[in-house]
Amino acid sequence: MSTLDLVAVTKRYGDIVAVDDATLSVPPGSFVCLLGPSGCGKTTLLRIIAGLESASSGEVKFEGERIDATPVHRRDFGMVFQSLALFPHLSVRENIAYPLKIRGRGKAEREKRVAELLDLVRLPGVADRPITQLSGGQRQRVAIARALSVSPKLFLLDEPLSALDAKLREAMQVELRQLQERLGITTIVVTHDQREAMTMADAIVVMEGGRILQMDRPIDVYRKPASPFVADFLGQTNCLVAKPGKGGAEIAGGTIPGLQLGAGRREAEISVRPEDVVIRPAGDAPIPATVEFVRDMGSAVEIYLSTEAGRMIAQRASGHDALAVGDEVSLSIAPDAVVVFSEGVAR
Amino acid sequence: MSAPARTNASGQAALAFPAVMLAAFFVVPFGLMIAVSFFSREQGGFYTPVLTTANYQRFLSWFFADILLFSVGLSALVSAVCLTIGAPFTYLLSRLPRRSQVPWLVAMMAVLSLSEVIIGFAWSTLLSRTAGLSNLFVAIGLMDGPEAWSPSFTAVLCGMVYQAFPYSILVLYPAFSRLDPSLSEAARTLGASPVRAFFNVIVPSLRNALVATFIIVFVFALGAYLLPQLLGRPQHWTLSVLITDQAVYQSNMPFAAAMAVFLVASSLILVLLSTMFGGRREAK
Amino acid sequence: MMEKLFTRLFFGLVALFLATPLVVIAGVSINEKQSLTFPPEGFSLGWYAQIFTDEGWRSALFTSVLIALGAASLAVLIALPIGYALWRKTTVFGRIVQLLGVSPFVLPPVITALGALSFWATIGSYGAWYTVVISHAVFFTSLPLVTISLGFSTIDREVTEAASTMGADNRQILTTIVLPMIAPYIISGFAFAFVLSLNEYIVAYMTVGFTQVTVPIKIFNALRYGYTPTMASISVLFVAVAVVVFGLVARFGDLPRLLGAWSDGGQK
Where is the ABC transporter domain (chain A) (predicted)? Predict the structure, then answer.
């Protein structure tokens, strides 16, 4: 049985549909990321799960039972907010002990639990400091510890790392995932950062315009995106229009031998990841191209290419022969690296 | 019912007590005062509810027109003086580090909260013959003998500026302290002197706030009810003083009320004008 | 350099203007004899003792403090629900009540005084002690209203939401989060209303002028009917009270912020 189920959840604000017919099921102990651009409805969906908003229609079930009517403070979920929402008038200790105090737990128990949690988030020795004297990373940990202090049934995080600088954010992603694995707690995180989602999640839920586009393991969302939007949102991709041709498929100014678009389709949208675009000397491969720009990032090199089908990006490990702007090359694409979208071509 | 809807309902219920208090002890008294302004005077009592417009007719005379004109002129002068000194002062104050601003703000609050009675007493003492400033000038040889400088128009003006100055600072303070410091820095990097930067950049960008402040301080000065009486001669009395005089010493409530209604009407028009200039934010 | 000198001079002149009248009455208050002279002749703190030993002054001070405590408390009780309701949800009705709360302070004080006089005289309570408490409270509601509204605006909505996800119901959120967070603003609002009520003359005079004597009324009477140095010493005491109260507000709160500066403006 899954821990959390959403059935056809819809949220309207007047004429605006923030969440549109979202159906989702979260298995116990899993780490799910709601991923999408800002305004896609992911935060609203999380707030509906938390009980901070009520759905206009649809069902929210926890362990098989409907909880739509259960008020927030009776749900026993832990939540970390984007602003962290630490209580500025309380010390670190009082912040973490707050949920315990509300539940009437004794002082000894509270003290013990605060010490455990500070250990868990690796923040020893700050218990008596006021919140205002902590660094961004420390606050982050306090917010996480506070949300976990009563061992919640569900752990919700709304863009929890967005206030941190890039380096600290990456470190916290790993730490958060390790923490979740250790506790085995079912977790849902809202984020707009695909790297963050790829790092932490068991499953990624991609949303756009209030709708859930795809829910899959991270590698599957990356390798088998359900739509051009998903392909484009997760990492870089080359989106092309292909038609059936002799022995494969044709794109403007070139071919992809061996690619089948599906029976009876006259054209289809396809996606090829940059790392699957292979660069060869001019004339050696079926797609001619000119080097437009070379972006050397040390560990890898991205090459921007102009082709008749438009700009394409290829990526390869550094150490190959250097390419220069203006070089004539040719490209080959293996058919099994191509994702063919089933929907029609958007014009 | 959902949780958010329930909390909204309880939030609005909280308004009941303040609404009743303000309606009963501000709106009703205010309405009653307007009503009384149309009632007849009763010797030895307050009023009898017999409708009349006599109170307003009496007001429409040269004597009162004179007083009104004097009140308006005096208040405008006070406001102008406060703004002329207050605007550059507030500007310089808001450029100080916060820590250094605090003692000044405390001083401003303290002076602003002082009773008009105390301000009147302090200034009448300061300008008196026996204990005043002139004694100091005699001591250092600037004058031959001590003089009484109060009551006089200057004394009234000094006292009222003293009272209104902190008020004007506190009204100007939010606008000035929220002003982007890079504004004058930009002007300075373009070669303007500090004084020119102040007049060419700061003043125009706060024009609305300054106009609004002028009107607010003007209304504040119009409300001074004791200083013209304590520091001036009868010809320096303002409308507020006259209202107090009629209500308390002449026991003519209806006439005092009629003048008060007139004062409110003119103040309100001015406050509305000031909000039209918009530079004012909610805080103060 | 010139610029700094100019600023110093300007600030010095303003300070001189603000301080001189107070210095003079401070000087007068330590005169040995009962005469209005400055510079003071001799030195005596007797006139300060007089505030507490003289029956008339002592009871005036007592009356004033009681009225101010009552009025400031009531003003906070009126302002707090307005700030709370508007923080919860901005409604037209809430805005109207807020406007009513601010109006008395913006209008000339004579108006409030005269309105109070008409009202209390009409319902027959003229001169009763509570009339001045209520009228002062209504008159000064705008001060706690401004500070408390500011206090509420500092509470991020996510903070109360966080408390609710942690199991707190509305009442617990109010008592453990909201009230503690706005407490400093309630105290400053109370302090402002207290000091202003202490100093207020005209409303007090028109409501209880014939039955009670407050300190400003007593100073005014002394001013008209006969000088006594005690009026100087008690004025100095009032200045000191104002400085101490606002100094405390500044010490424990962010005074520039309370008076309308942005929270982050050049804070060092």
Answer: 4-234
